[in-house]
Amino acid sequence: MITDLEKVPDHTTLCRFRNLLISQRLWKDLLGMVNDQLEQRGLKVKESQGAIIDATLIESAARPRKEMEGIAVDRKEEDNQYIIEERVTLSKDSDATWLKKGKRSYFGYKGFMIIDQEEGYINQVHVTPAHVAEVSELKEVIKNRQDERLYGDKGYASQGNKELLRSKGIKNGLIEKAKRNKPLTYWQKVFNRLIAKIRYRVEQGFGTLKRKFKFTRASYFTTPKVQGQMTLKAIAFNLLKASNKVSYG
């Protein structure tokens, strides 16, 4: 803790400390430690009824020298697969990859986030290269989670992920996805509408991270450093939420 009488560390010291946290992989515990303290002070719900998962694109700090001819295309609705074509990375950021979403191509990373359903605190973050499919990362993102229910969009829906949630005792809140020649039933559509009304919290969270904490673009190269940056942004996000709760109730 820094008191009024102590000198605030300079930029170089803070950068070295941040790099040490990343190189020693100590940042992985920081978000949980901060959340534990918020729970102890009654500022965060300890036992959440549910959690919400989503992902967003984070542009690389590097400017690619050349746009690729073959780019990973965002998931196809039918089978959750990405179209991966051969490509060469021409950038200082060796971990960043291309992803085409709609008509726009992105070069960078994909940031995953789990927030609690009740208040929208961030419980978990995870970073991958941009082309990695959501459906393949659910196991990694929730490996240390034990939520009552997990909500997510149809990008995470697969039989394997449903079985994964069941094996962990987590109720399935993943939006159902229509399959080829097999449209959604009436009750699946009702289920999807109910889940869609809950997912707004995670979308608000990403909006705040990008708008208030300027996290549309990474500040560093490589996955570990972007993961570290996202972790620190998540901590700042939760502390801001806790501060607002104290100030405004």
Structural descriptors:
249 residues; alpha/beta; Nucleotidyltransferase, domain 5; 7-stranded mixed β-sheet; 18% strand; globular
Textual characterization of the structure:
The protein has 249 residues and is of the alpha/beta class. It has one domain: 2-Layer Sandwich (Nucleotidyltransferase, domain 5), CATH 3.30.420.10. The protein has helices at residues 11-23, 27-40, 134-141, 159-167, 186-198, 200-211, 223-248; strands at 51-59, 72-73, 97-101, 104-116, 122-129, 149-152, 171-174. A hairpin with a 2-residue loop joins strand 3 (97-101) and strand 4. The longest helix has 26 residues, at 223-248. It is globular. The relative contact order is 0.18. Residues 76-81 and 83-88 have low confidence and may be disordered.
Query: What fold name stands as the CATH topology?
Result: Nucleotidyltransferase, domain 5
Please give the count of helices. Answer: 7
Determine the CATH superfamily.
Ribonuclease H-like superfamily/Ribonuclease H
Distance between the termini: 25 Å
Parts with pLDDT < 50 across at least 5 consecutive residues: 76-81, 83-88
Order of helices and strands: HHEEEEEHEHEHHH
Number of domains: 1
Question: What's the pLDDT, averaged over the residues?
Answer: 85
Specify the structural class.
alpha/beta
Quick recap:
It is built from seven helices and seven strands, in the order ααβββββαβαβααα.
Secondary structure layout plus pairing:
Elements: H1 11-23, H2 27-40, E1 51-59, E2 72-73, E3 97-101, E4 104-116, E5 122-129, H3 134-141, E6 149-152, H4 159-167, E7 171-174, H5 186-198, H6 200-211, H7 223-248
Parallel strand pairs: 1-6, 2-3, 6-7
Antiparallel strand pairs: 1-4, 3-4, 4-5
Helix pairs in contact: 2-7
